Amino acid sequence: MSVIASPSDQPVGGGQAAAAPDGQPGGAPMPHGRRRTELLMLAFVVVVVIFAYANVGLGLNGKIPAGVFEYGIAFAVLVGAAHLAVRWLAPWADPLLLPLAALLNGLGIVMIYRLQESGRDGNAGFVITTMSTRTTAFQVAYSAAGIAAFVAVLAFVRQPRTLQRYTYTLGAVGLVLLALPAVLPASISEVPGTFAKIQISLGGFTVQPEEFAKLCLAVFFAGYLVAKRDVLALAGRRVLGIDLPRARDLGPVLIAWGVSLVVLIFEGDIGTSALFFGLFVVMMYIATQRSSWLIIGFLLFVFGAFVAGELFAHVRDRFLVWVHPFSYVHTIGFQTVQGLYGLGFGGVLGRGLGQGQPYLTPLVQSDFIITAFGEELGLTGLMALLLLYGLMVQRGLRAAIAVRDPFSKLLAGGLAFVVALQVFVIVGGATRLIPLTGITTPFLSQGGSSLISSWMLIALLMRISDTARRPAPQPIQDEGMTQVVRAG
Amino acid sequence: MNHALRRVSLICLVLFVLLLVNVNYVQGFEASSLANEPGNGRTFSAQFQFQRGSIVTADDKIIAYSKMNKAFSEYQRYYPAGKVYAPVTGYDSLFSQTGIELAENKELSGSDPALAVHNLIDLITGKPKKGATVQLTVNSVAQQAAYQALKAQGKQAGVVALNPRTGAVLAAASYPSFDPNLLATLDGTKLNKNDKRLLADPNQPLLNRALNVTFPPGSSFKVVTSSTEFTDTSATPSTEVYAPTQLKLPGVSQPLINFDGEACGDGSGRVPLITAFTQSCNTVFGNLGLQLGGHKLQRQANLFGFNKPNLTIPLPVAQSNFPLYTDPAQAAGGAIGQESDTVTPLQEAMVASAIANRGTLMKPYMVDKVTAPDLTTLSTTNATVLSHPVSATVADQVKQMMISVTQSPDGTAHLSAGLQASGGIVIAAKTGTAQNGTNNSGLDDAVFTCFAPASNPEIAVGVVVKGGGQGADAAAPIAVAIIRSYLAALGKS
Q1: Of B7, B12, B31, the CB nearest to A393
Q2: B356-389 burial by CB neighbour count: b if 16+ within 10 A, else e?
Q3: pLDDT over 50 at A12, yes or no
Q4: What is the mean pLDDT of the segment spanning A412-433?
Q5: In this predicted model, what pLDDT tens digit does every residue of A217-255 receive, in sequence order?
Q6: Is A378 on the interface with B (CB under 8 A)?
Q7: What b/e string do you get for B308-329 counting C-beta neighbours within 10 Å, with b at 16 or more?
Q8: In this structure, how many other beta carbons lie within 10 angstroms of the beta carbon of residue A148?
């Protein structure tokens, strides 16, 4: 966990930084951009991931898997490319975010490889039927696409505020992406074996638009709330020490609540619904600084979830399994119970990569991948993973606090929070802290949409932190005479 | 907005702390209860990743051990004398366990808390984890003799031999038996096939007839009835009792008769109790049952171990029954081991061992000690008293009558368990021939309960042979064979 013990990086003052060339393409290393720290940590990440990959082979059949060097080099090239892009495009960006994302992504690939190999070539366990022999190759390709998207976002969004211009465009795109699976026929949009209509599957290629809707809506919320925050923050009545907003200002929050309920009802996706609503409420709170929004939002969500539980069997099932998982061990509780067995089986130190039985848990490569880590890396490994996420969120919030522009502040705060909330919802669901809702685990779960959108999210956070930490332009202190421009 | 952002940081911190606390709870505290959850496939298959402890007899014969099966890279269980010990060891299959394999699973698999320190040391020193060795009280000579005798007899039967002084189980055999190796295979398809075949076998080889099947005790129950009589009245073996050839029972048209309708004793209608016991007169003991009544009989039966649910030795034992007969005719039938009386062979051995041990019934047990892989003893079973069914005086009186059964020329077991048959060992015994089926149309079950040597009892045996006919003919030779072999091995015959 050398990432935790990284040197502190105070926002640099103008005086020292003045000597450094500012963000020239291919320029000399920035003494205070901490790119060298990032590179060192990335090297460490590559080593950890290669060791984990080798470990899977040793755990499965006692042999180091074929292609450990090829894959290692490929992974090193990918993260190296990301690093070079950051040097070029965002030299002042936070040095921790990229290594954190790379480590999570690399470990995700390793675990997907491990799950793919179970039961194949005489390995222990049985073949996970929802995975093919090419799943890992696809995941590597998605990672490359994710890093490409990461670079693209850094390249196209040179100033976070440029996004503000597209507030309503992105809002509309986000809503369309979110609502699209609901209006498409189930044959295209339903995830097989579930009630969730959350994907678009055409010609063997599947996209989960909600992953991208998340980013679009975060930008929209930030733009919208920055514009309206003064109105929303206007004091209404004060009841029991809580500032209640005026009734007419409740409009936006009710609309967001309505949309999230529509997602819940028509797409059967409680997790995504919670994610969007939580994102909106927290961004509303950041914008207005009024805790009443948090309370109102929380109560509305609990009420909505309760009503949904009363009305829809598949929502009620989740509650039942949460309360009494072992009563439904052969039916609706099977997955949760298998996940818990896996966690318990892993214990404190874990069975070791390739030596557990995560293949017993259905959909372990997506919703329940965290239990596979818990089983094979143990409580120790699972806590380390959670700390990686925690650190990622913390760096995002740090960027939000450091940046000056309110739009960027709001966007960074929202994006960082949505990572925290997403991790909480899926990890909490898989470990029975809260009812299970199937959403992806950022960077770890199998699947391209989640991976690519997560990389784009990291790119946005890094762009904002780059803006925050970039030294203010220095006045030119020319020794020569002041030029006087004379009119006409 | 920074104030709100800091608050949001706190919210995120709380979310992560909740997650961390929860995974600590699940993986740290809940892990062991999750592992013991029935149907946790992970725990089960993990057992085949390391060497399970062996099961050995009291005289150090290995009867179950684990060895690496290269084809599966897993440890497989082997049972060198499978059928002989099947009712004791049970089996350890991919899907389930029985017998000692189940009862002592924690020790054998090394998951017992007592082994935690050993496991930790092994983890640090890099030695593979290994289960503890379970040493049984079962004596290989007695067990072999028991199984061979049952096999020679060829009918469905169960036998248990106890050390009357300690309650240690010396033998527990069942016939027909099965080979646990068939179920220990690591090949799932093969296992399923073998399992199906054993389950479909009409002879039901998987049944443990020593401990888990009950039979009517027949006249062997007269040991209990006599004990009640001696305890609750001033009667002694020489007391003359009413001994009609036919006993009229209240409310029943058919009178109670002796075996084949014979007269009891000299046919005078009164015989000493010991004669009635020696000849096993139903009318005498039916009459005693009428006089004593259901309550007293049940109280005595309970003290001998009847009606006791959840007896574990540590294998679970089926309950032997002596219900409360409030109807006098039923009490009379119950007193001679008919009606709804049922016993396991273990119960028969317990009755004999209580008499042999001068009225003190020791709790039967099968595990002598558990030894860690480094040969340190983890636990030893101490003999404990289960109950005091009768006084020493009463026990000696009953013993006197039981000796008469084999030694007196008119005793029911004189030919089958007398000095000639036993090679000079004085056996104290009681035979039983239990009627069976609708209107007693089925073949009689043969029952035999005994201990030897009568002067200084070393072994008590209970035998039941289903459909064996007369107890003396079918069951006694099995008990005699065990006693002879065991005492020979002890060097006491």
Answers
A1: B12
A2: bbbbbbbbbbbbbbbbbbeeeebbebeeeebbeb
A3: no
A4: 95
A5: 899 889 988 888 777 776 566 666 666 666 666 676 677
A6: yes
A7: beebebebbbbbbbbbebeebb
A8: 16
Is the backbone of residue B127 left (phi > 0), alpha (psi -120 to 50) or beta? beta
- The angle that helices A369-402 and A97-117 make with each other, rounded to 10 degrees, is 170
What's the maximum distance between 2 C-alpha atoms anywhere in chain B? 114
Q: pLDDT per residue over B99-127, tens digit each?
A: 999 988 888 887 777 777 777 777 677 67
Q: Catalytic annotation on B219?
A: yes
CATH class of B218-367+383-490: alpha beta
The reported pLDDT for the residue numbered A243 is 66
Q: Is residue B418 within 8 Å of residue B411, measured between CB atoms?
A: yes
CB B168 within 8 A of CB B365: yes
Of B148 and A329, more confident: B148
Distance CA B488, CA B493 (A): 6
List residues bridging with B319 in a β-sheet.
Answer: none
Q: Going edge to edge, which strands form the sheet with B62-69?
A: B74-78, B62-69, B55-56, B133-136, B367-371, B377-380
**Residue in A401, A403, A396, A399 with CA at minimum distance from that of residue A423:** A396
- Contact: B26, A287; criterion CB under 8 Å: no
Which residue from A minimizes the CA distance to B33? Answer: A344
> CA-based Rg of chain B, rounded to a whole angstrom?
27
Which residue carries 């039901």 as its tokens?
B204
Tokens representing A133 are 């022999």
pTM value is 0.66
CB contact under 8 A, B39 and A329: yes
pLDDT, position A14: 40
A385, two tokens = 């993973």
* Crossing angle between the packed helical segments A334-346 and A369-402, to the nearest 10 degrees: 80
pLDDT digit string (tens) for B232-250?
888 888 888 888 888 888 8
- The number of angstroms, rounded, from the C-alpha of A113 to the middle of its chain's C-alpha atoms is 21
Residue count (chain B): 493
Q: CA gyration radius for chain A?
A: 24
- The per-residue pLDDT for range A149-208, each reduced to its tens digit, is 999 999 999 999 899 999 889 988 988 888 888 777 777 777 666 666 777 877 667 788
Domain residue extents for chain B:
218-367+383-490
Place of tokens 């009891």: B264
- B19: closest chain A residue by CA: A428
- Among residues B328, B348, B352, which one has the least CA distance to residue B339? B328
Within 8 A by CB and 6+ apart from B154, the residues are: B175
The average pLDDT across A380-386 equals 96
